[in-house]
Description:
Elements: H1 2-11, E1 16-18, E2 21-23, E3 25-28, E4 31-34, H2 39-54, E5 66-68, E6 79-82, E7 85-90
Parallel strand pairs: 5-7
Antiparallel strand pairs: 1-2, 3-4, 6-7
Amino acid sequence: MDWITNRAAHKCFLGLTVGEEICTDLDYADDVSLLASMLEILVLALEILHEESSQIGLEINWSKTKLQAFDETSTPASKVSVLDHDAEVVDSTLDPE
Length: 97
């Protein structure tokens, strides 16, 4: 998975700067959180991630894919289309149940 996310990060401007480090993703067992400064970059990263992973037989579970925006100056749509798949935009990634 690291190989795929690294390839996606190098093909777009994926990542956030923390001090002098650039963080592109966070890995959790079989989940990945991609980090981007703009929603458009995140959508591009998901498209590239889909392309790279499908080449080795992996698929993105679009029903579980969530996007979280931290830009308080605008209200994002409730869904974003990525390669004809809807990805839900949420306020929090925590499950309320």
